[in-house]
Design goal:
Blueprint (H helix, E strand, L loop, with lengths): L2 H17 L4 H15 L4 E8 L2 E8 L10 E3 L3 H9 L3 E3 L21 E9 L2 E10 L7 H19 L20 E4 L1 E4 L2 E8 L14 H25 L7 H13 L2 H12 L4 H17 L4 H22 L5 H4 L5 E5 L4 H5 L6 E6 L7 H9 L3 E3 L4 H4 L5 E5 L4 E4 L3 H22 L15 E6 L6 H6 L4 E5 L1 H5 L7 H15 L4 E4 L15 H5 L9 H7 L1 H14 L4 E6 L5 H20 L7 E8 L8 H4 L5 E4 L1 H9 L17 H13 L6 E4 L7 H9 L4 E4 L1 H11 L4 H13 L5 H10 L7
Length: about 750
């Protein structure tokens, strides 16, 4: 008998039981009898989650006196392991499994084989369905699938209290534990509070068992047709080139969308008696279980693709389309999601979106880059989101400490408010310095600029009092777009940015994509093969290869800056010839525009970023060609220390205040003395007060930082005597102490310079 036929037989008999007027316990007893009989199994048992433990609610084959007596904690024994991991176990010899736990009151010692599946409700296990047999054997795949389908129906029946008496409080909902703390990886620092909102609201499947199997099948067919049309439309919208990773991605999606095996499994689930929604969810549950067993990251990514398509299909068939962004945020919110794309994040109302918590996420993800620019704290790699967070829960996000508190009590809320109030007080004090020029105590003017990447970021220029934009990341427009931004679209953005800046300077960095900033419409096959994508085919390297990409950007920048000063900065330069090649592209486009009597910039300033350590040894050759050079401390530091900043195990292994990085930066500063080149820092290091103090002491007079850091750095500058800090840093670097950070901190404390 097939899995579908076996499951349909069980569901048909379950339907007959549900139609009866007997009490819940009698129905449960009959359910285990039917399952055991249908699968020719000597034992069938149902455990349900009650008061935090799995309680034996019904059994056929075990000692009936163990019912409502045997209890297992989540993670305890085979049953507890199934519930904890939401996985299926199929064992020929149960006692050989390391998690086996013997319960003498059940009389199960004579049974060898064991199979169990979780009873899942809202993505968390609320029970376990088990079968056992005297002879050692693994259950057939058709039997396991029948069990899984049955467990899905049991979930609905239990949720509707058709198998449980009203007085039996099964733990269907998330336990409302006060001060429940989840930990994760800090992706963007910050404090926030608000109500929990899920990016994709949960799809509620109201009916699991089908009344008309053929009608359900037709609903799935229509949903498949609509989904395939959507995927085909995405393919037609791809504008850049004939090949590339976007083609591979779309082909993978098409492969799954048109995969007969996937659609057949959904049809088989419908054949077993499930509705269209339940059938898709049933196959999706199976996919999730397989994903947990996959160690190969490439295969895991492909399974994630199938998961995404399953969600798309489920939303189409249920008619529950849209995200929380399309519905609108009505109050301050902390957004929870498995993952997010940058464009999805930008759809949210910034006034209401206070923070983001991700089930996945990495330090180099596009959404993190955009969130940092938006000033939205983000916590990633947080497990247990769906099982512990309820929509509307009060949430405190402390991304500084890598934790999120659910349902905080009054004491915790008050402590948070006190801490948050101090932060606001400091911000208010910094805001008062908006119009104050940052001179040191001995009269040296320090240039404090801000970093930006979005059109909306420019409002922070006036609010922060920054001297200009020292780094405008042009790649943001590329990262949030599904297709290559056309030249006219780029030009409009650059013109808007220059208009918003007024008479303040803006430094445009040419596009830094590729490597760990892959975009779907460029061929990143080389980057995919790179073991170290941050050091791979990216930034200027990629732009010079794809000359059409850089040409279009050059034209857009030149036209946008017509009649004004244009400052262009090339990223990831490692040798002078790369800078020369990038500059030549701009000069060629400038000539093109002049030949056509177009208005061009009055002045063009060319600069580059120092991120590749090798560039420091050829600055004498490059400096005469430069107007400015900006040190990108994020990439530079990871290259110097051979420590991937995206690796959480290495993220704290290097220190910007170590002798190695400070001596390197000091040598760069010294090498440019006498050269007519403006030297600055545009990495995260410059926005940290203690690190900025060290930079001032080794010769740096220009900093480009996040808008939020402008006030704190201006306040710091006004407390510093450059002569003093320069002398102190020279002593430290000549004979480094064991802890440079501690020494610098003590020096600052003695001069009443405060640090967070």
């Amino acid at each position: 008998m097939s899995a579908a036929a076996s499951a349909r037989q069980i569901l048909t008999r379950l339907h007959e039981i549900m139609a009866g007027r007997t009490h819940a316990q009698h129905k449960l007893d009959r359910v285990v009898e039917i399952i055991a009989e249908s699968l020719l199994s000597e034992v069938c048992s149902i455990y349900l989650l009650r008061e935090g433990a799995l309680e034996l609610y019904a059994t056929q084959g075990l000692n009936p006196e163990a019912v409502h007596v045997t209890r297992l904690a989540i993670g305890e024994g085979l049953t507890g392991t199934i519930a904890k991991n939401i996985e299926t176990l199929n064992l020929a010899e149960a006692k050989a499994h390391p998690d086996f736990a013997y319960r003498p009151e059940t009389g199960e010692e004579k049974f060898h084989s064991f199979a169990g599946v979780p009873i899942v409700y809202r993505e968390r296990a609320v029970g376990v369905l088990c079968v056992q047999h005297v002879d050692p054997r693994r259950y057939e795949e058709v039997e396991i699938e029948a069990l899984q389908t049955t467990a899905m129906v049991l979930s609905e029946l239990i949720a509707h209290k058709e198998l449980v008496d009203d007085e039996e409080q099964i733990d269907l909902e998330i336990a409302h534990v006060e001060n429940d703390v989840l930990e994760g990886l800090t992706l963007v620092k910050g404090l926030a509070a608000g109500k929990a909102v899920f990016h994709q609201p949960r799809i509620e499947i109201d009916q699991v068992v089908a009344e008309d199997i053929e009608a359900e099948r037709q609903r799935v067919y229509r949903a498949f047709d609509k989904m395939r049309d959507q995927i085909d439309t995405l393919g037609r919208e791809a504008e850049f080139g004939k090949g590339g990773e976007h083609i591979e991605v779309l082909e993978t999606y098409k492969m799954f969308a048109y995969d007969e095996g996937w659609s057949r499994r959904i049809n088989e689930a419908i054949d077993s008696g499930l509705t269209a929604e339940a059938a898709i969810e049933r196959v999706q549950q199976r996919t999730r279980m397989r994903m947990r067993e996959i160690d190969d990251p490439l295969l895991a990514d492909r399974m994630h693709d199938l998961e995404d398509l399953s969600n798309r299909l489920l939303r189409i068939v249920s008619g529950q389309l849209g995200t929380a962004a399309t519905q609108g945020l009505r109050r301050d919110a902390i957004l929870f999601a498995r993952n997010l794309g940058p464009a999805e994040l930008l759809e949210y109302d910034r006034r209401r979106l206070k923070g983001v918590v991700l089930d996945e996420g990495s330090l180099t993800a596009h959404v993190v880059i955009v969130a940092r620019a938006m000033g939205v704290p983000v916590l990633g790699r947080v497990t247990g989101i769906r099982s512990r967070v309820a929509e509307g829960d009060e949430v405190i996000l402390d991304a500084d400490r890598g934790m999120v508190t659910l349902r905080p009590n009054q004491q915790v809320l008050e402590a948070f408010e006190t801490r948050f109030a101090k932060t606001r007080e400091k911000q208010a004090a910094y805001a008062e310095l908006r119009e104050v020029e940052p001179f040191t105590r001995d009269g040296t003017r320090i240039t404090v600029m801000m970093n930006a990447g979005l059109r909306d970021d420019m409002s922070a220029l006036a609010m922060s009092g920054a001297d200009g934009v020292g780094l405008f990341r042009t790649e943001f427009q590329f990262l949030v777009s599904s297709t290559l931004p056309q030249r006219d679209r780029q030009m409009r953005l650059y013109r808007d940015v220059l208009d918003a800046a007024g008479d303040k300077p803006v430094v445009f960095r040419t596009v830094d994509i590729g490597g760990d900033k892959a975009v779907p419409y460029l061929d990143n096959a080389v980057a995919e093969r790179d073991e170290n994508p941050a050091m791979g085919w990216r930034a200027l390297r990629l732009s010079l290869e794809r000359e059409g990409l850089l040409k279009a950007q050059a034209r857009a920048l030149l036209e946008a800056a017509a009649g004004r000063t244009l400052s262009v900065m090339f990223p990831m330069v490692s040798e002078p010839w790369e800078f020369d090649a990038g500059r030549q592209v701009f000069e060629d486009q400038l000539k093109f525009l002049r030949d056509r009597r177009k208005v061009v910039p009055e002045t063009i300033e060319y600069g580059c970023m120092l991120e590749v350590p090798a560039l420091a040894d050829v600055l004498d050759l490059l400096a005469p060609k430069l107007s400015f050079i900006s040190v990108g401390t994020n990439d530079l530091t990871q290259f110097l220390f051979a420590a991937d900043r995206a690796n959480p195990k290495l993220a704290e292994r290097y220190d910007w205040l170590s002798p190695a990085i400070l001596r390197y930066l000091a040598r760069v500063s010294q090498s440019l003395i006498g050269q007519n080149v403006r030297l600055g820092v545009c990495g995260e290091m410059g926005g940290r007060r203690l690190e900025a103090l060290a930079l001032l002491g080794i010769g740096y007079r220009r900093l480009s930082i996040t808008p939020a850091a402008v006030g704190p750095i201006k306040e710091l500058v006004r407390k510093v005597d450059l002569g003093e800090i320069t002398e102190f840093m020279n002593r430290l670097l000549a004979s480094p102490p064991p802890n440079m950070r501690a020494e610098l901190q003590q020096w600052a404390n003695e001069r009443d310079i405060e640090f967070d």
